[in-house]
Amino acid sequence: MSDLEDEACGCQEYNVLSRRQFVMNTAGAAVLGAVAPSWLPRVVLAQTAGTRDIIVHVFMRGGADGLSLCVPWGDANYYSSRSTIAIPRPDATGTLKATALDANMWGFAPAMLGLLPAYQANQLLVIQGAGLSYNSRSHFDAQRYIEVGKAADPSISTGWLGRHLATVPPLSAAATLRALSISQGMPNLLEGAPKTLPIPDPANYVLSGSSTTRASRQSWLTGDYSLADEPVRSAALDAAATLTLLASLNIGGYAPSNGAAYPNSGFGRGMRSAAALIKANVGVEAIEVDIGGWDTHQTQNPLNGGMATSMADFSNSIGAFWADVLQGNGTYNVTLVAMSEFGRNVRENGSAGTDHGRGSCMFVMGKQIAGGRVYTRNWLPLAIENLQDRQDVRVTVDHRDVLAEIVQNRLNNPNLDLIFPAYTPTFQGVTR
Q: How many whole angstroms separate alpha carbon 85 and alpha carbon 303?
């Protein structure tokens, strides 16, 4: 399923947002990603380039239910609030039940077991109660605020990851492509990043039309736009160079390592392409991949229904990426972050689904991540009196606390005041 496909189970706003992203982002992506914002300082470019991780950012668009992704099986309130959609306890009869991650509280749903090997290797951290401190139940607003790194500020046009890339030197001075979004359009997250493009399918990134004239048309593109004004010139030349680069890599023929098996889904193919690009060592330093299907207002069914399918796609794809890139003694320095714009109500609704909520899960993966645990901060039992607005998981970990720690400690960028404006992060011990 494409990241921008309409979800049949989603609310009207989510479907409108998906269409808006497809139309608007595709039209403006090249220009937005061509140049860095003029207000950013240049002095930071003196930093050492080769001592930071590549970052893979996965956005679970639609509002993923964190209580299904990571089950609070030790809390009786979870079961009383969800009479039809709760994941059974690890000691329940039958095969469809939670797998315990600790002795008394947290577990993975059956469809999330693709992540268990990474968790057991202490390279996967699950953060419960994470999200946007600003109270928004709008897909459009919450996604934008998370991606630009500041809530309720329409003046910010660049993304936090775009500003990171604009304030560090490239990992490779000769890099044709520093970052990409494996999606139909450029997300807010990467706006402002130099040498960055949206590429829906890196294994099949070619000029449309006849293959017999493709080479000549690409040559014409390069020559014609070399005389254009900025930022159009840079955008066109970057795109042309990327066409040549990706054609040389044969991503379609990429063979994963360690027996990794990526699902044959849009998201699975995206994660496979991400692994291929990282291993090609061509200077790519940030990759964004979307996965939709999380706006579960009705018939949520996280055991064997639509949400179970989304969870299996998510966990098996990221699990394959871990086995392929991070398992064992490989030398790839990669940090992966997966998150959603918000979670869902604790109590199920009358349609066997859940409505827009607040706190959800974040997943952080890497060799230098303090994993093998479920992290919570000031977590309280899910009794109604403890819930945000008497209905939601409280946001007790601001997503920027997690991202800022990764930016400083794993991406080697100290410019947190620029990347997350007007926010002083509190590190949560995410990195080793």
A: 8
Question: Which DSSP state fits 283?
Answer: S
First to last CA, the chain: 35
Segment 229-242, tens digit of pLDDT: 777 777 777 888 89
CA separation for the pair 104, 169 (Å, rounded): 46
Q: How far apart are CA 315 and CA 312, in angstroms?
A: 5
pLDDT single digits (tens) 6-44: 444 578 776 665 554 444 343 333 333 333 344 444 434
- How far is it, in rounded angstroms, from Cα 277 to Cα 367? 19
- Phi, psi at residue 134, to the nearest 5°? -70, 135
Q: For 127-195, give the DSSP string.
A: EEEEE-SS----HHHHHHHHHHTSTT-TT--S-HHHHHHHTS--SSTT-S-SEEEESSS--GGGTT-SS
Inter-residue contact 271 to 54 (CB < 8 Å): no
Quick check: 292 and 2 in contact, CB under 8 A? yes
Return the closest-CA partner of residue 7 out of 57, 69, 61: 61
Domains in the chain, start-ordered, CATH in brackets?
12-419 (3.40.720)
Cα–Cα distance list, 169 to 21, 44, 403, 408, 413 (Å): 29, 8, 19, 15, 10
Angle between helices 266-280 and 306-321 (to 10 degrees): 10
Q: In this structure, what token pair is assigned to residue 166? A: 């604009």
